[in-house]
Every structure is written in structure tokens, then in C-alpha cells.
Amino acid sequence: MQAIAGFAWWTAVFLSPVVHQATLGDLDPAAVAVFDIPLFVMASAGAAFGVKAAAVVSTGWTGAVAIALAVYATITTEAGWGVLSMGAATAGSLISLCLVLLGRVPTAWIIRGPFAFRPANRSTAATHVASTFGQIVLFWGLFLAVIPLAIAVLEQRWAVALPFPSFAGPVGVALLVLASALGISSAVVMSTQGDGTPLPSAMPNRLVIAGPYRWIRNPMAVSGIVQGTAVGFILQSWLVVAYAVLGSLVWNSVVRPLEESDLKKRFGKEFQQYRDTVRCWIPQVTVCFVFRWHWPGK
Q1: φ, ψ for residue 120 (rounded to 5)?
Q2: Other Cβ atoms within 10 Å of 272 Cβ, number
Q3: Helix (H) or strand (E) holding 13
Q4: How far apart are the C-alpha atoms of 274 and 90, rounded to whole Å?
Q5: Distances (CA, A) of 209 to 56, 106, 178, 186, 288
Q6: Model pLDDT, residue 285
Q7: What is the pLDDT of residues 155-165, one digit of tens each?
Q8: Cβ(231)–Cβ(179) under 8 Å?
Q9: What's the rounded Cα separation, in Å, for the pair 232 and 168?
Q10: CA distances from 63 to 82, 242, 255, 287 (A)
């Protein structure tokens, strides 16, 4: 798919001045194509047939071009759409490289070291709450302020911004307030009743089924995704909205299975029944009543 997309893109570059300007700016397409077609298009095709060297070449070249184009676009305000295209191609190349060399994408690597799942040290609820709020300040500041602001600035600099309706800002503020309230209430419930924190390296020692967790299994993840989308509305940045959506896909397909595997290992049938009763993403109000009256020991 990447080889075909690359070939189609180069065809469009030579046939359409609009595509040329949007993706390469004032760069000479012939000078770029002489390197990019063999090292990106042809190497991607080779990787598709399992040629390891081609996968390595395609990944290295694509990443280098993405960085070079990003620097060029930031300096000149040209070729912004080319940066986004090559950024996506770099991600695709990395996935291809893992599949060719390892036969899989090693998602378990993300929970090693400081991000490994570990139960929190036993402590008072006040200590866990204080630690949780420290995490909130750090992670919300990074993922909901610093990174979105940087993305929004680059979006304007690369000239890839798209118009938003006038009501986007107020809607974003309302969503941000509601999602933040959900996130804070979920964090407090987890830290007071779970004897731990939301951080993977200091996870709760007890399965939490109270508060927002009665209606949905991952209220903090839902909160974070909605918050990111809301910030995108406030900043009127479609790239920030895309960043939130991409984060939700990565969390759901990569992080959630690993987290649920750990919870099942630690809490066994208790977590299995909870997972079978309460949905992951969509709240089901009737669940709380069934869960309350039929949960073992309650």
C-alpha cells in the first residue's frame, strides 16, 4: 500500500502544480525523485515482499525525509502537507520494519522499565491522592497544553490549518470542563478506594468498581480523549483533534489489552466478571444497578 501510494504521489507531483507546491514547495521534484523513488517507493515494495534490507532502507530514508521536510517547512512555511504525508509514511515504515524483522509489532516494549505495571506501595489514601494529583498536573500539562500548543503552532507554520465553525471554541470549553470533571472524579475514586494511583508503575492494589467505574471500565481514558479533542476545538486545530483520535486508537489497540491482561492476572475472576458486565467505552446506566446487586460480596 505504501509503495502504491508513493508511486501515485510522485505521479501527481509531476502532473499537478498544486500537489507539487503543497507537498514539496519550491523544491525541485526531479532532484528529490531521483533518490526518493528507489529508496522509498521501490524499497517499500521490496519490504512488502519480505526483503529485510529493503525494509531497513525504506524506514531510514523515510524518517530522514520526514525530518528534513519538517525543518524545511518550518523555515519556509512551504511543503506542510508533504511533512504530514511523510510522517504517516514513517509510521507505516516502522510498522513494516517490525513485521519484517520480528514478525510482529512489539507492543509489550512500552510497558518495560518505568512504565511497567507494578502495584503501588501500601500507603494512606491521602498519600495516594496527593501523588495522583501530582500526576494529573504533570500529564495534563504535557499532553493537554505543551504538546497541543506545539502542534497548533506548527500547523499554522506549515500552512495546513483548516477553518473551524464559530461555535467550536465554546463547545470545546464545555467539553473540556465536563471531561476534566470526569477525569478528576475517576482519579480520586481510584486513589482512595484502590490503594494506588492511575500510574502504571503504582497501580491500585484493589479492583475499583465504584464511582464512574460502575458505568464504564476506562473513564480516565475517555476523559483524556475528550479533553484532547476539546483542546483541539479551543485551539481550532484539526491536527490536535487528530492527535487525540490517534491517541485513542493507540490506547485501545496497544495499551488496553496489556493493561487488561495484567488486571486479569492480578484479580482473576473478579476482573473477568467486571469486564463482562461493564462496557469499555460506552456507558450503560442500567449496568450499575445489576452490578450493585449481583456483584459477589456486595
Answers
A1: -70, 155
A2: 13
A3: helix 2-15
A4: 39
A5: 46, 31, 21, 10, 10
A6: 61
A7: 999 999 999 99
A8: no
A9: 9
A10: 13, 20, 24, 47
3-state secondary structure of 194: coil
Cα–Cα distance, 245 to 178 (Å, whole number): 18
User: CA of 60: how far to CAs of 66, 94, 109, 274, in Å?
Assistant: 10, 9, 21, 44
Neighbours of 243 (CB within 10 A): 20
In order of 18, 44, 78, 87, 220, the CA distances from 14 in angstroms are: 10, 20, 17, 21, 47
Task: List pLDDT tens digits, range 247-264.
Answer: 999 999 988 998 899 899
C-alpha cell at position 179? 471531561
Q: Round to whole Å and give the CA distance between 54 and 170.
A: 49
| Class of domain 111-294 (CATH, top level) | mainly alpha
pTM of this structure = 0.89
Mean pLDDT of 190-214: 88
Mean pLDDT of the chain: 90
Highest averaged pLDDT of the listed ranges 94-98, 113-117, 170-174:
170-174
Burial of residue 167, with CB atoms counted within 10 A of its CB: 0-12 exposed, 13-18 middle, 19 or more buried: exposed
Domain boundaries, the chain: 2-105, 111-294
> How far apart are the C-alpha atoms of 262 and 108, rounded to whole Å?
12
Q: Which residue has the cell 470549553?
A: 173
Dihedral angle computed from the Cα positions of residues 43, 32, 29 and 157, in that order, rounded to the nearest 10 degrees? 100
Rounded Cα distance between 41 and 216, Å, is: 44
Measuring CA to CA, which residue among 31, 224, 197 is closest to residue 129?
Answer: 197
